[in-house]
Amino acid sequence: MAxxxxxxxxxxxxxxxxFDPNGxxxxxxxxxxxxxxxxRRPPRLLGLVVELSTRRRIFLPMTRVxxxxxxxxxxxxxxxxRRFEQRPTERLVLGEMLDRRVKLVDSxxxxxxxxxxxxxxxxxxxxxxxxxxxxxxxxxxxxxKGETLTVDWSAVDGFSLEEHGQGAESLLATFEQLxxxxxxxxxxxxxxxxxxxxAAALDDDRLADVLEELPEDDQIEILGKxxxxxxxxxxxxxxxxxxxxxxxELPEDDxxxxxxxxQxxxxxxVRRLMAYEERTAGGLxxxxxxxxxPDATVADALARVRMEDLSPALxxxxxxxxxxxxxPTGKYLGTVHFQRLLRDPPYTLVGSILDDDLLxxxxxxxxPAVAGFFATYDMVAAPxxxxxxxxxxxxxxxxxxxxxxxxxxxxxxxHLEEEAGHGG
Length: 424
Known about the structure:
Blueprint: E1 7-9, E2 17-19, E3 25-35, E4 44-51, E5 57-61, E6 65-69, E7 72-75, E8 90-92, H1 93-97, E9 101-104, E10 110-120, E11 127-136, E12 148-152, E13 156-157, H2 169-174, H3 180-188, H4 192-201, H5 204-211, H6 216-225, H7 228-237, H8 240-247, H9 252-261, H10 264-274, H11 281-284, E14 291-292, H12 298-305, E15 317-321, E16 332-337, H13 338-343, H14 367-377, E17 381-385, E18 391-396, H15 397-404, H16 416-420
Parallel strand pairs: 2-7, 14-15
Antiparallel strand pairs: 1-10, 2-3, 3-4, 3-8, 4-5, 6-7, 9-10, 9-13, 10-11, 11-12, 15-16, 17-18
Helix pairs in contact: 3-5, 5-7, 7-9, 8-10, 14-15
């Protein structure tokens, strides 16, 4: 290879924007597609997996890449927007090659692949893998001290063999900054084997967030491959309404077994939600809105709103109730919206600035009625109150949309015609 040819480590390409010649972004790089070759010849890069703004993943051949530099990929602007489908002879570098256990040819020592670098061949558009960055030591020692080294592709062996129990630490480090919905999209496009390995490597909270964003079939598949105790822990970490929706799809015996393994308080919330019809306010609501007593101050309310694990919809307002403070509460008094909290002094009592003009939703309100309520009053969340006046929970706009969109909406490309226009 030419001495001046740039070398790029593949982990640095993850999430990098891809632009057309006019400087318009067409998507982001999500993986690199290579083809293994016989003997010890380095794999050839076939192209990049690029995720469009519609979340569709397409294949961008390396022949249509004019530059890889300064944290960006420049393309010729000609795109084929057909969905990427991996062929049997192809390998995904990020999805399948990182975290593999391979052997050093000279010593036979097992090492873990942390990254690979690619380089463009001189006077050609062809690219190939040239180096492998590895860590010595036993599997599962990621981030612990251990000798790391970069070796030529020909110095390692074992990429062509199927590996059982492959780790996922390096892959997860590459995608560490992704939002849960984007990481869910990554998992959805992995093989079932790799999907299970990545799910096993995620902590409970992160896996719970990702599960909430996955299609139902993927949720059931991943949950079914976890040990039952861990599956129960993950369900506890999920929003109660999402956990209830997932459990409702399981066989009765599996559902009861997992509910029994969950903490009693968490299981009680989920059981309560499962008692309602799915497409009603009771079936849509979460049981964990922000609940305050009327003698709480604006400062108290803002402190609760600032909690980083709250979704924007749940943080948009607080619900003022008589004790007890957990749902089902004492008498529901009204709502205080976030904007009102910003306008009033910190010492103001929330009980004095209530918005109590709108009637709350009944738990048996149908999905169309709930959607109409949100549209009429420009709401992002709404209280659900029973006949006795107790707050049962809150419905958020994202849950309404989830149930109104088609079942396969995560696989649907919106505004695809606009995206295809980049092809010129």
